[in-house]
Specification:
The chain has 12 helices and 8 strands. With about 290 residues, it is α/β, with parallel strands linked by helices. Helix 5 packs parallel to helix 6. The radius of gyration is 19 Å and the shape is globular.
Length: about 290
């Protein structure tokens, strides 16, 4: 695989394009709102420059990655000659299914179609595509250019060759891939959200401050970030949607969203992307 198209230029999409270009792939980034593409490309540039400043990357490697990364304002232009499409659009099943219906007609017959969904049914997305055997989940973690894990999610008819090929490219992207079956929440979201929701309940009950709850997990269990910090990073609106989905699909009250989460989302306190969640965050532009 040498040609990758990423659909969705938001928090996850620009990060996926970053690691694809750095892995040596000719990478195209597109979005339904083309006006966001220049800012996404600039964020890729800034993150690469930080890598150079920290000695993680050579200037030549940065320049080569930027040369391999372009944007496209039209979906058909982005995907018509690609080997792998990675979808990173809004976490709504109807939107993803509609997109994958279009991708079947727009992409080459051997193109692999991957969804970055963090909890939705990959099988339901694949079924809409008309070519389910070449569809799987490729769940990255934020920030994509730093986090090592990628979850490869297989449904009942995913072609084993497709899985092997995507595992190979994930390793080229300097990721550690794991393979999980297509079940609600997969492995990471199901485990992570239980911890995050329990931390929210503890805060709601006044057991400890947000900072102290996070410190408990960082110093007591060796987690690099606390569960409330992680929730802010993911986005509290995203966390709420995933919790509601898992509670419904698994019929399990462990995933019932606490009132504090609903209140914050209603108030527009969505975490890092809004500057405030369970913690205060600096401006995205700083």
């Amino acid at each position: 695989m040498t040609r990758v198209a990423v659909i969705g230029a938001g928090t996850m999409g620009h990060g996926i394009a970053h690691v694809a270009a750095l892995a040596g792939c000719d990478t195209v980034l597109t979005d339904a709102a083309p006006d966001v593409l220049p800012a996404a490309l600039e964020r890729i540039r800034r993150n690469l420059e930080r890598g150079v400043a920290r000695g993680k990357l050579t200037p030549d490697a940065m320049d080569a990655a930027l040369a391999r990364c372009r944007t496209a304002s039209e979906l058909d232009d982005a995907v018509q000659n690609t080997d792998l499409v990675i979808e990173a659009v809004v976490e709504r099943l109807d939107v993803k299914r509609a997109l994958f219906r279009d991708l079947h007609a727009l992409t080459p017959p051997k193109c692999v179609l991957a969804t970055n969904t963090s909890s939705l049914s990959v099988g339901a997305i694949a079924e809409a595509s008309g070519c389910p055997e070449r569809v799987l989940g490729m769940h990255f973690f934020n920030p994509v250019h730093i986090m090592k894990l990628v979850e490869l999610v297989v449904h009942e008819t995913t072609d084993p060759h497709v899985l092997a090929t995507v595992r190979e490219i994930a390793i080229r992207m300097d990721k550690e891939p794991i393979t999980v079956k297509d079940r609600p929440g997969f492995a990471s979201s199901r485990l992570g959200i239980v911890l995050g929701l329990e931390a929210m309940r503890m805060l709601e009950e006044g057991i400890a401050s947000a900072s102290d709850i996070d410190t408990a997990m960082k110093l007591g269990y060796g987690h690099p970030m606390g569960p409330l910090e992680v929730s802010d990073l993911v986005g509290l609106d995203v966390r709420l949607a995933i919790a509601e989905y898992l509670e419904r699909e698994l019929d399990d009250t462990r995933f019932a969203p606490p009132a504090i989460l609903r209140r914050k989302v209603e108030a527009g306190e969505l975490g890092k992307k809004s500057g405030r969640g369970f913690h205060e965050w600096p401006s995205q532009s700083s």
